[in-house]
Amino acid sequence: MITLGSSIEELTNNAVEIIEVGRKMNATLAMIIFKAKELFGIDSKGFFGWCSDNAKLTGSYVHQHVKVGKMLISLQDKEEIFKMLTTLDFAKLIPLSRLGATEIISLVASYNFETMNREEVRNCVNNLLNGFDASKNLLDTKSTNEQNSLVQDELTGFTTAVNSVIELATNGFDFENAITNDEIAEKATGSGMVFIGATIEYQKKSETPDYQLLQAMKESLEKDIVDINNILGVNK
Predict the structure, then answer these.
(1) How many angstroms separate the CA atoms of 5 and 181, rounded?
(2) What pTM value is reported for the model?
(3) Which residue in 40, 72, 121, 163 could disulfide with 59, CB within 3.0 to 4.6 Å?
(4) pLDDT digit string (tens) for 82-101?
């Protein structure tokens, strides 16, 4: 049974506490998801299954929470900034998670994320990542609108493709026995190399590379190389 309170004072205190907890709920969940990813290590199937069963998150939503959680944890020692970020709308935290801790700290000195809307935060981040001087007005939408419109359709298609593969993996799809002819094998190889190449390029440009992800990728590729060499007879 839920205890609501029997006086105005108790009801007020309970209402304030619930609202405060609610404001921090998404940020707290993101940190939990990130810590869970660390504990699952290279067991991505287990991790995504855990997220689906326990947090009701799948696909790109999992990646968003991982990135936001990683960002928040990296700023835990900056008490005021951390407190402010944990109460922001999750839609604002997503673009901010593209930045490193140093960049966020510098932006907080000039911009009030609490009063900015989602689009303003997104434009601010895009302009900074595109090399604009942080001392100038990063909220100017003119500098990003044209570039965003050129790549939006392509990004939407790419994200859809990535999410489709993630959804299959989450549902236990048997990838090892999915290819039945040379044509599909060739297409699958090309697609896989595109995804791997895109991930590596992103990590190369990132101020805070995901070393755990890169290590897991390296170990997986090394196992694949052994199998390829065996097929080619290199090790014989």
Answers:
(1) 67
(2) 0.56
(3) 163
(4) 999 988 888 889 889 888 88
Rounded Cα distance between 100 and 74, Å, is: 9
Sign of the torsion angle spanned by Cα atoms 38, 41, 47, 48: positive
pLDDT in tens, 123-157: 888 878 776 655 556 665 544 444 444 444 455 56
Lowest mean pLDDT among 35-44, 47-56, 158-167, 218-227: 158-167
| Nearest-5° Cα angle at 201, 141 to 146 | 20
Tell me the C-alpha distance between 144 and 123, whole Å.
Answer: 7
Q: Considering just the CA atoms, what is the radius of gyration of the chain in Å?
A: 22
- Between CA 140 and CA 190 the distance in angstroms is 39
* The two three-digit tokens of residue 53, written as one number: 């069963």
Task: Write down the residue that tokens 């991982």 correspond to.
Answer: 66
Beta-carbon contacts of residue 208 (< 8 Å; ≥ 6 apart): 70, 74, 100, 101
- Cβ neighbors of 90 (< 8 A, separation 6 or more) are 26, 27, 30, 68
Q: Are 216 and 42 in contact (CB under 8 A)?
A: yes
